[in-house]
Amino acid sequence: MTILEALRLLGVKGLERVVAAKVNNEKKDLSCFIETESHLEPIFIEQEEGLEILRHSASHVMAMAVKELFPGVKVTIGPAIENGFYYDFDFDRPFRDDDLPMIQAKMEEITKADYPFTRREVSFQEALQFFEAQGEDYKLELIRDLGVEKLSLYTQGSFTDLCRGPHVPSTGKIKAFYLTKVAGAYWRGDERRAMLSRIYGVAFADQKALKVHLQKIEEAKRRDHVKLGVQLGLFNTYEEIGAGMIVWHPRGAMLRHILEEFEIEEHLKRGYELVKGPEILKTDLWKKSGHFENYRENMYFTEIDHQSYGIKPMNCLAHMLIYSSSIRSYRDLPKRYFELGLVHRHERSGVLHGLLRVREFTQDDAHILCTPEQLDSEIKGVLDFVKAMMSIFDFDYELEISTRPEKSIGSEEDWERATKALVKAVEDNRLPFKINEGDGAFYGPKIDVKLKDALDRRWQCATIQCDFTLPERFNLFYIDRDGQKHRPVMIHRVILGALERFIGVLIEHYAGAFPAWLAPVQVMVLTVTDRNIPFGEKVLGSLKEAVVRAEGDFRNEKLNLKVREAQLQKIPYMLIIGDKESENEGVTPRRRSGENLPFMKQAEFIQLIQEEVRKRR
Ligand SMILES: [Zn+2]
Ligand SMILES: [Zn+2]
User: Fold this and answer.
1) Is 465 an annotated catalytic residue?
2) Which tens digit of pLDDT belongs to each residue from 137-160?
3) C-beta pairs of 106-109 under 8 Å, 24+ apart in sequence
4) Is 306 marked active-site?
5) Catalytic-labelled residue, pool 139, 312, 367, 404
6) Which residues sit opposite 550 in a β-bridge?
């Protein structure tokens, strides 16, 4: 009996929405035969696992469509990803966005034809022969690398792919999909191998879910920080300067300055001390710390007076030397060293993206050195700090704890102690969390904070990282009550993370419309006619005097145009200076939302905006 027949016999409801099943916890096709004593569980299309099968099946359909439309194309791999799928192709020209409608139409034809997905098992030799006959070189490489006796092939209509499965029973189950974009991708992610064309699509259980998702994509495009970054005069990148290096234009540099000042203030409030280390440190020191051994491939090196130096990818080392510059007693602990530290890390050019993935960035980095007894309360303190900061920016967040990876340093005992401390702090905070096994840094377990933005997307920001090994390597100690030397525990932590990345997320979160306390320009003063300029100048002057970030637009242009431009720049307040304002010596503020406030004296307006800044709104 097949799984489908068994499910029917069991009277499973909504069978038309079942795409596969778990037999003794193993995912299988509905057409698979089943033993009577098995544990059987249907997988519905709208479940996470069902969607994954649906999306992967859609990638097969796309491959079939592309092969039919573009003779000579070679197929490679096509997995399901979050919200959709992709397939990588090798063709004599790269695919373009304008190829997509045709491929989409072909896919619709295929799904309407409702071809069944059929599975067949073949031997290693048969698989090789099959794909060799079709000239599918990439498949041959995959088969050889797999090196297994038996492989499975899936066929729908004219197309057969090497695949483990399972798949939806037939192409007709794929009812809601949309091809979104084309990108270049190296075969197996290797820059020395062929550059392929990757076509991305999204797929959902039904049209309604697809529509909701597409609206989110549209909204994300509208908020794209790279586009807004240029439009709002915040930042740009330049080919002449180099990839992954950000150039901050005046308004962006102002935004950074506001954030940095805010960060320093918040850290000082919480007992941190400001420190600053150099950009480049001797390579010998990176050897001592273990970075050279474990992190060298992400670092840049240079030479001074025939001596090798490493450009810092992390800020830890100078902080270690500051700690060990004098003898510390238990009464001096904890020490909390804070630095807005500029670091450089090598990222492959293919992953660089706007402010989100860069090669040079500034971290709001701190190192806390404490006694083992203080570890729990220090971690808790950092979690409270994260909470306060996230609420200011209106972010929700989730926590993940990462444990020991394969490539790592330190004893099993240290790792366990540190991991327990992190779990305890999170539990005491009554925060839900997830464990990522084996995902820690090489020197200790960590808590990652994933914030959720206005579009419900997740971003990595804060990290709280235990480290029992650097204090060892740098022979750090403190004198305890017993008069003996003891090893302090160290926490590396960032709250916002890389400022570049955080600003990128902020731009998209606020769609560029920053609250008044953050806005690089808070007020735009606009004149109606030239005779209002003297009073306009006066207003602008008084705002600047009060350290309100204001600019003036006194051009002899139509007021409508000047208002529209200020709106496009997403400036929180406009002060339109006409005859009424000039004669009565006051202002009529207008909010970005279009709301008009009553006529008021300049001092009143200054007070209003200062109040917003104070409340960080
Ligand atoms: Zn497949
Ligand atoms: Zn560090």
Assistant:
1) no
2) 999 999 999 989 999 999 999 999
3) 106/65, 106/68, 106/69, 107/58, 107/61, 107/62, 107/65, 107/177, 107/179, 109/65
4) no
5) 367
6) 523
Take residue 571 and report the two structure tokens written for it: 């400036």
Q: Which pair of structure tokens corresponds to residue 252?
A: 């962006």
**154 CA → ligand 1 middle, Å:** 7
Catalytic pick from 55, 106, 363, 493? 363
Name the E strands within 504-571. Answer: 523-527, 550-553
109: which strand partners? none
**CA 30 – ligand 1 centroid, Å:** 15
Nearest-ligand number for the alpha carbon of 165 = 1
How many Å lie between the centroid of ligand 1 and the Cα of residue 56? 6
Distance 117 CA to ligand 1 centre (A): 10
Ligand number with the minimum distance to the CA of 117:
1
- 261 pLDDT band, cuts 50/70/90, is very high
Residues with CB under 5 A from ligand 2 (ion): 314, 316, 492
**Could you tell me the CA-to-CA distances from 224 to 90, 126, 358, 478, 502 in Å, in that order?**
30, 48, 16, 49, 14
HSE-CB at 193 with a 13 A cutoff on CA atoms is: 13
Tens of pLDDT, residue by residue over 374-409, are 988 999 999 999 999 999 999 999 999 999 998 887
Rounded to the nearest 10°, the torsion over CA 44, 48, 54, 57 is -130
Specify the DSSP element, H or E, that contains 283. Answer: helix 283-289
Q: Is there a catalytic annotation at residue 316?
A: yes
Q: Which of 319, 336, 345, 404 is catalytic?
A: 345
- CB-proximal residues (5 Å) to ion ligand 1: 163
What is this structure's pTM?
Answer: 0.79
How many angstroms does the Cα of residue 59 sit away from the middle of ligand 1? 7
Residues 403, 426: Cα–Cα separation, whole Å: 14
Could you confirm whether 215 is annotated as catalytic? no
Query: ∠264-395-403 over CA atoms, to 5°?
Result: 85
Other beta carbons within 10 angstroms of residue 536's beta carbon come to: 23
User: How many other C-beta atoms lie within 10 A of the C-beta of residue 571?
Assistant: 23
Helix, coil or strand: residue 414: helix
Check whether the bond before 79 is cis (ω within 30° of 0): no
Q: Could you say which DSSP state residue 249 is in?
A: -
Is 499:260 a contact under the CB 8 Å cutoff?
yes
Rounded CA-CA distance 439/419 in Å is 12
Identify the bridge partners of residue 153 per DSSP, sorted by sequence position.
120, 162
| Residue 99, token pair as written in the block | 């190829």
